[in-house]
From TrEMBL:
Function as written in the Swiss-Prot or TrEMBL entry: Catalyzes the transfer of a formyl group from 10-formyltetrahydrofolate to 5-phospho-ribosyl-glycinamide (GAR), producing 5-phospho-ribosyl-N-formylglycinamide (FGAR) and tetrahydrofolate.
GO BP, sorted A to Z: 'de novo' IMP biosynthetic process
KW Protease (keyword) present: no
Gene3D superfamilies: Formyl transferase, N-terminal domain
Enzyme Commission (EC) number: 2.1.2.2
Protein name, entry field: Phosphoribosylglycinamide formyltransferase
Source organism of the structure: candidate division WOR-1 bacterium RIFOXYC12_FULL_54_18
Catalyses which reaction(s): N(1)-(5-phospho-beta-D-ribosyl)glycinamide + (6R)-10-formyltetrahydrofolate = N(2)-formyl-N(1)-(5-phospho-beta-D-ribosyl)glycinamide + (6S)-5,6,7,8-tetrahydrofolate + H(+)
Raises pKa of active site His (site feature) positions: D145
Binding site for N(1)-(5-phospho-beta-D-ribosyl)glycinamide: G12, S13, N14
């Protein structure tokens, strides 16, 4: 059982998809801890319903990113986390977290990277006028949404779409590909060569 630590900031629907996949044995893994930088994140309530330990570590209570991330690393280590999954975690990952979990930390982003990294990816896609967007699960590196890509799923943009309708259709795909990416890692099926992720 791969021990998963999930970092969130808000709703936690991806967290829920991961919990469900673990509980129904679609992933040989277990969510052992959930950490949110936002104490009001709904995802914390979702985790509690499944008896998963939760920690609200508010970045605003720390003088700098390193001290904040040291606290996160401490909690992840206490729970012997083997894979860190960012699931709607809206903070930039700094060197402390990255140094400890490089190659063992993944993220989901609501666009077909490398298009539209950063905030408001769905809005960026609409404003750019692309016809197809989607979502990406990737390893975390020092850039913003730049790490090696594990899985992507495409979502066509409809003429009537606004940011909300598009985000909703992308989320449905996120809930499918994020557990699948975790399954591949938990089953030790992936290797990273440079910036390319390959099936072993
Ligand atoms: C998801 O769409 C996720 O891809 C996005 O935030 C949403 C969180 O939803 N993440 C980012 O934009 C990270 N840059 P959730 O809290 O319901 O999982």
């Amino acid at each position: 059982m791969l021990k998963l630590g999930i970092l969130i900031s808000g709703e936690g629907s991806n967290l829920q998809a991961i919990i469900n996949a673990c509980e129904s044995d679609r992933i040989p893994g277990k969510v052992v801890v959930v950490i949110s930088n936002n104490p009001d994140a709904h995802g914390l309530e979702r985790a509690k319903k499944h008896n998963i330990p939760v920690f609200a570590i508010d970045h605003r209570s720390y003088s700098d990113r390193n001290t904040y991330e040291l606290e996160i690393v401490k909690v992840l280590q206490q729970h012997e986390v083997e894979l860190v999954c960012l699931a709607g975690y809206m903070r930039i990952v700094g060197e402390v977290l990255l140094q400890r979990y490089r190659g063992k930390m993944i993220n989901i982003h609501p666009s077909l990277l490398p298009s539209f990294p950063g905030l408001h990816a769905q809005r960026q896609a609409l404003e750019h006028g692309v016809l197809i967007t989607g979502c990406t699960v990737h390893y975390v590196d020092e850039g913003c949404d730049t790490g090696p890509i594990i899985i992507q799923s495409a979502v066509p943009i409809m003429e009537k779409d606004d940011e909300n309708t598009l985000a909703e259709r992308i989320l449905a795909q996120e809930h499918a590909i994020y557990p699948e990416a975790i399954r591949l890692i938990a089953e030790d099926k992936l290797k990273i060569e440079g910036r390319i992720v390959k099936l072993k």
